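Example 273.
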Amino acid sequence: MGQLVFHQGILKDHVAFVTGGGTGITGGVAHALAEAGANVALVSRSIEHLETAAKAINEARVREGSDPESTSIGEAFAVAADVRKPEEVEKAIAATIERFGKIDIVVNGAAGNFLCTAEELSPNGFGTVVDIDLKGTFNICRAAFAELKKNRGQILNISATLHYLGTPMQLHVSAAKAGVDALTKNLAVEWGHYGIRVNAIAPGPIEDTEGIKRLVPEPIKEKIRQRVPLGRFGLIKDIENAAVFLCSDAASYINGAIIVVDGGHWLASNSLR
Ligand code: HXC
Ligand code: NAP
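Predicted structure in complex with NAP:
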């Protein structure tokens, strides 16, 4: 287990359903929630991604203590589903409840991206990203609603900052993530009455991720890094810490917030440096 930032076991007795939980940023978030004590269902299309990530969590659990009753690390479970397909989403929710008894945390991290100018983007290219990022988030929230209502649970959406200004070659993702932010605020208002908190994290550029690999060509990487006021790319750990905080009781009055975790990057977009 890495160095503890939070009190051990602060998410014990929670169950998190994490889309995109097999890789990258949301893979890190799933691991961090498990380290904080939650049982986690890892959900995406590729069972290979999911089983590898689940194995890493379950092995850490075994390393920590051979007695499953006393370990503070949660258990992981891999369940394949495409967030674009409501029937697969419903089955994944049901499988998680069957395995862990409930769901009270939903993390929506599944996303797709590629660089493409607006004039070259096909209707299906635009639609595919909106289908995964925005409609997929809706599909998950909708399918998990009854369970979240029953457990006074919460939703954490993974957004972005690129729609705060205009970002070339990112029309599709900007539109989708702007929608995710709208969904976050609307659900916070509608479902807050049921005790369901709905928040988002908007990461800036995060090192060693598929997103950066796809979006930031090596020659301009250093230039982008210099634009970040804190002088570095984000780490997956930075997003993990924000996620554990938002999912914990320490954030029990935070609802409808979109927490930017980007080292000040987007605010400095006008910087001439
Ligand atoms: C133009 C493209 C394209 C490209 C795909 N398309 N790649 N158009 N340039 N590079 C178009 C296709 O031509 C097709 O339209 C349509 O998109 C659907 O393509 P498929 O390959 O059939 O889609 P699918 O198999 O469903 O895959 C979805 C995907 C893929 C998004 C295209 O890349 C994927 O699975 N990505 C998941 C991993 C990922 O993207 N991770 C990064 C997340 S980072 P036509 O018209 O030809 O049928 C992120 C960062 C946000 O979100 C902010 C960072 C700062
Ligand atoms: P990533 O590892 O590629 O994560 C995307 C995940 O989504 C993958 O695990 C993928 O798994 C899953 N996925 C894609 N399509 C899916 C579908 N139709 N159904 C179910 N799951 C699907 O990329 P990342 O860079 O870490 O991004 C993670 C999140 O952070 C995304 O929401 C992204 O928009 C956001 N973000 C990233 C950055 C960054 O710097 N990287 C910045 C801002 C925001 P499968 O292939 O197994 O389906």
